[in-house]
User: Fold this.
Amino acid sequence: MTATTLDQLTADLTTAMKARDTDRVGVLRQAIGAVRAEAKAGPVEKDLTEEDVLRVLTREVKKRRESAQIYTDAGAAERAATETAEADVIETYLPARLSDDELAALVGSVVADLGATSIKDMGGVMKEATARAAGAADGKKLSALVRAALAG
Assistant:
């Protein structure tokens, strides 16, 4: 039996609380809170799939990376380091990222499978490539590769 990501977050929170690791406890509570807020968003509480949970965690990592960049640009290195450390903790719960070569191969495969020939086909290619990558690819990088493959 494999534990879901949310179950793993909860178990790790308990472990961190017992170890009195306040930094990790804070990050895990925020991540669990974000997942639960997503479940309660809308008029009716919904059960989140594993993909939904991973999407929320990916969004949380992205927010922290962007905040770290803003803090770095503003000269607040300590705050940037905190945001980066939080992103690193949450990122351990996400699937491994695809390498650039794997991502290029995936895009090539999708373009060939769909018979895409021009930039007009980008929407369909992006949809299929995103589904095949299953959260293991950065959207901006994926978009750039798709655009390059369709442009020439």
Q: What stands out?
A: The first helix runs from residue 5 to 18. The chain has seven helices and no strands.
